Amino acid sequence: MAKESSKTVKPPSPGRGGRRENAGRKAQDGMTRADGVMITALVTPAQRGRYLALGGSAWLRAMIDREFGKQFD
């Protein structure tokens, strides 16, 4: 006969875990996923390194705004 464990399993606590609004790391420049759209570009590993060194997506948005003077907002 199998011996039963003396430990009991607790049901999950309500309100804990899972997806929650405003959870997670915040963007350094204030941009959130809800504020924008995702674009994709295929680059070499060296280009990716330079892109990240320049500031990543915040740098890209600044360059687009600078070049077009925010005329598309």
From TrEMBL:
**What's the superkingdom here?**
Bacteria
Official protein name in the record = Uncharacterized protein
Query: Bias regions of kind Basic and acidic residues — which residues?
Result: 18-28
Mind giving the lineage of the organism this protein is from?
Answer: Bacteria, Pseudomonadati, Pseudomonadota, Acidithiobacillia, Acidithiobacillales
UniProt region (Disordered), positions on chain: 1-32
